[in-house]
Structures are given as structure tokens and as C-alpha cells.
Amino acid sequence: MFWSVEHRTFCVKAYFENGRSIVRVQRAFRLRFNIAPRGRIPDRNCILSWVNAFETSGNVSTIRRGPQNSVITPENVERVRVAIQQSPRRSIRKQSQVLGISRRSMHRIIKEHLHMHPYKMVVVQELKPRDYEARQIASENILAALPRDAVVFFSDEAHFHLSGCVNKQNMRYWSETNPRELHQRPLHSDRVTVWCALSKNGIIGPYFFEENDRAVSVNSARYLTMIQEFFLHALDEMGVDEDVWFQQDGATAHTARRVMEFLRGRFPGRLISLRGDLDWPARSPDLAPCDFFLWGYLKSKVYNDRPRTIEDLKNNIRANIAEIPVEMLGRVHENFRKRLDQCIQSEGAHMPDTLFKTK
């Protein structure tokens, strides 16, 4: 984090005015510069280094002794370019070890000098000719009918394989242009089938579709039972206002006659689905919060400790869902509306800039 001269001067002055108390300096800094409760502020080491620099030299810059030799030379920039062209999937950590250049310098060379970006693999479905107009119309209708302050539960299922499916968040491909990289995985491995419903107020789930401790396919009977016995009970426990909206995709299990009749009765006028009150377009994971956020986020977390059993994997899923902050869910909800607007602007096309580029 770069701290300006104003930041440093304020901290040194506050340090002496507050009896050399680091905590009081940090509180004063937060108030002076209007920093949010969880926003970044100078830590103890930073403040003490600025005080020491002031007492030693009369200024607030950290004292640097001896000449500063930069490793960011034309020769090293070219070395990094060649190394990335040869191994674009190699991580920055490994690249820095191979080349003998610090990770910080590697990041600066890649971003500031080579102008490369880390792209992540995203699975999208090929759009059919009629899908473009359908996606555009659906996006327009949802934005027009859905109040900005509405509570919407976006629902979906996903498979988590014990072998560890493609880690869509951590898989990176460094390049100046988007490679549209694909990835293959084994066809069969032990897995769990997880259902969740995400809203800006919180997440309901996970619910695991299983019988006798084995994952089972999702059919209309199992789906309806889950809605009635799990989702609605959890919704009542959350104490959410009655006028909530419910979204689901057009999977056959979701849109069976009995299921749709029940959902229309429970969410009258507030069902977003194929053949719902507001139509949900087919082949549109780039618009669904569970697809563009939740599943990728979870798959970047649950395999970190290499779960060995299905129960370990399930426990990791539960724990990581519980740790997702409400503030993050609020940003996801806003991003959903932005994606609808971008879908309209692109006349129903997928959104490669949003989906593939990470920063």
C-alpha cells in the first residue's frame, strides 16, 4: 500500500499528540481520512518507521541507505516476456523462482511493462441464433419489473468432485490477449451435488442431493421436496420479508408441472424462471449469480486443504459458505443488474470482458 506524504505527516503528528499511542493514531487516521471500518490503515510498523525517520532525518520518508539498484531492466523485461510466452500457465511464484526475480518485480514487469493480464477459464454455453434476442428481451423485462431493493434468491446446483474440478478462480493464463482457454477433466469421480440460493441478505444452503450418503441426480420429486422441506423452512428462519423473489434456470427438474405450480403459489408474481412470471433465458450462466460468482468462489476455497473424503469436502463447502460476508453478496447483486444492462447493450451476446478478464 502506498501512503502519501500527507498520510505519513498526519500519523507522525498524531503519534506525539496522543501520547505515543499507536491505537489512537490509527483511530484518528480513520476519522481524518474517512476510512471504512474494515478499510486499510497504516499498521504499527509503518507508523513507527515514519516516526523513526522523522526523529533521525527530519522528514517522514523511510531512510534508505546505499544505492537502489532496480531489477526492472530492459534485459529482465525481455527475459520475463520469453519465459511467459514459453510457459503462460506457470504461476508468478514459480516464474520468479526460475528467473531469480522477486514476485513484486515480476508483477510490475508483467503489468506495467508487458501489459499482460491474468485470464481465467470460464465455461459458457454456445448461444443459438434465437438466444440473442431472448436474452436481450429477458434482461430488459427483469430490469424493468424487478425493484432495485427487491430481495431475490438466485438458486442453482453444482457438482463438486473430490478429485478437484477445474479451479476456475485460481487457474490463470498470462497473455496480452484473451486466449479463451479450455480445460478437460476426468469424466467420473466421487462427487457431491450441491444446491444453494443466494441473495443480498445471505445464502440458504448448502443442500446436498444424496441418498445413503451417495450423490443422486436431481429430478422433479427430489427438487420439490428440497424446496418444501429445506428452502422454505430456512427462508422462514431468516425472517425475510414475504415479498421475496425466486430465480431458477430452465432445468427439467425445475420446470416440471408440479414444481411450477407450487412455486407460482408460493411466489405469486415473483418467480423468475422458464415459463415463470419473468422469463429466465436459456444458456445464460453469465447472468446467474450462482454461476458467475458462487461456484467459482467456492471451488477456489474448498480444495485448498486437499479434502480426502466426501465428508471433508462437504464440511469445507459448509464452512466457506458460512464465511462469505453479506457485503460481498450485496456487490454480487449489484453486479447482476450491471450484467443485465450489459447484455442489453451487447444485444444478447455473452460478455467476454466481464467473464474472462480478472482485473
Automatic annotation (TrEMBL):
<dbReference type="InterPro" id="IPR032135">
    <property type="entry name" value="DUF4817"/>
</dbReference>
<dbReference type="InterPro" id="IPR036397">
    <property type="entry name" value="RNaseH_sf"/>
</dbReference>
<dbReference type="GO" id="GO:0003676">
    <property type="term" value="F:nucleic acid binding"/>
</dbReference>
<protein>
    <recommendedName>
        <fullName>DUF4817 domain-containing protein</fullName>
    </recommendedName>
</protein>
<feature type="domain" description="DUF4817">
    <location>
        <begin position="4"/>
        <end position="60"/>
    </location>
</feature>
<dbReference type="Pfam" id="PF16087">
    <property type="entry name" value="DUF4817"/>
</dbReference>
